[in-house]
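agent> Task received from the user: take the single chain below, predict its 3D structure, and emit structure tokens. No templates, no multimer pairing.
agent> Plan: (1) validate residues, (2) run structure prediction, (3) serialize to tokens, (4) report one or two observations.
agent> Step 1 OK, no nonstandard residues flagged.
tool_call: predict_structure(input=
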Amino acid sequence: MGYLRQKKQQKRENIFLAAMMVMLAALTALSFTEHGIDCKYFNLFHLFCLASVLMIYSLWRKKFKSVLVFAFLLLINYTSLAAYANIFLSDKFEGQQILELSFNKKQKLSDTLDKENIKAAGTIILAQHYKASYAVVEHNTPITLIQVDFSNASLSDYPLIFRHLNEFIAQNDNPVIIFGEFGIPAWSKSFKNFIETSNLSVKNRLLFNPDMAFDIFSIPGFYVLGFKEMGIIDLDVVNANNTKNIKFLVSFNPEKP
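)
tool_result: status=success, residues=257
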């Protein structure tokens, strides 16, 4: 490659990296605003992935100033994600009790549990078109399980959905585990507020679609929320009877009164 041609290529490369720095910095700053980034096919995780790719590319091209900028943006986005969700690994916890659970949109919560252990079951009315099923199971100690599916909910519905869900949790004396398809990522504004007020936290690694093990272009909407002394031993997406099921083992200690 001739000298002039090489210089032109370097100039185009520098312009590209500078433009990506500005765009990525602007989007990162936007994620800290009131509404954040709640687009259907683009969210905070994609900023994290984009910063990772650009940092690696800059390192390969020996653009060390760019490496530092993208590494800084990567750290910011990772911190924002990690505050409300686990990216690659589920929370591990070795508790006194182990409970096997599964999620399938086509199955009721009570159908996935041992009937002998169910002490109570019912439906929670959360908003005009949205409900959640719950069951109180006796597993050495009573525990309340809530299964949700908000995959078709609009962003305007979530404040009411989470408010009613939080009211139900507050009325429970038992430790609560919530799982299912929430339809939005955990770092969305409404979801973040719910996590903070309910004193629950996300325990599972990111699953971007209940029907797929990993698809970064979909919304990471499946979550298992639990209390402090609880974790996930194993989590798998399995195919049974031409439907996708998410099976997971939770380990926990009973909450002290």
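agent> Step 4: summary for the user.
The longest strand covers residues 230-240.
agent> Done.
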